[in-house]
Design a protein that fits this description.
The protein is mainly alpha-helical and 160 residues long. Among the domains are: 73 residues, Winged helix-like DNA-binding domain superfamily/Winged helix DNA-binding domain (Arc Repressor Mutant, subunit A); 32 residues, no CATH class. Helix content is 60%, strand content 8%. It contains eight helices and three strands. Strands 1-3-2 form a three-stranded antiparallel β-sheet. β2 and β3 form a beta hairpin. The longest helix has 20 residues. The chain starts with 8 loop residues before the first helix and ends in an 11-residue tail after the last helix.
Length: 160
């Protein structure tokens, strides 16, 4: 594929040249594989992400959990509620500030971690990529995300 700057402008308006489309298609494909892989754990992909963060960090305030997952409270609260109903987490209001809620993994939720150990290997196998390709892809995506997070619409050069 030619370098981006060498591609005629007309050809840039082709669906297959849109990075956002490739990322969206990959995200949908990952979602489909995760749905299958996580069925045994009785978790959805977003619930799995919540559990990953709790397994890694232990109890966390909802606000911090949302920051780590890049989710707003309107999306995160129903996830936590479903995980609580399933017995995987419990919520605890702060004693100093009742507005502050901390999410704790329960014993059942902590035990679920052992069942989840095969998930990353199954996902890696489904991609058909090597471990080093996955690391390279993740590094590129992390860099792109950081750049996009820092995007300044007043500085995008669109008018040039």
């Amino acid at each position: 594929m030619p370098a981006f700057a060498e591609v005629p402008a007309q050809e840039l308006l082709v669906l297959d040249r849109q990075i956002c489309f490739s990322l969206n298609a990959a995200s949908r494909a990952f979602g489909s594989v995760y749905r299958h892989v996580l069925k045994d754990l009785d978790l959805t992909y977003p619930q799995y992400l919540v559990m990953l963060v709790l397994w890694e960090n232990g109890p966390l305030p909802v606000k911090e959990l949302g920051t780590l997952l890049r989710l707003d409270s309107g999306t995160l609260s129903p996830l936590i509620k479903r995980l609580e109903t399933a017995g995987y987490v419990r919520r605890e209001r702060g004693t100093r500030d009742e507005r502050s809620v901390t999410v704790h993994p329960t014993e059942t939720g902590a035990a679920l971690r052992d069942k989840a150990l095969s998930v990353p290997h199954r996902i890696l196998a489904a991609t058909g990529l090597t471990s080093s390709e996955i690391v390279e892809l993740q590094n590129l995506l992390d860099r792109a995300t950081a750049n996009l997070d820092g995007f300044n619409p007043l500085d995008d050069g669109a008018g040039e």
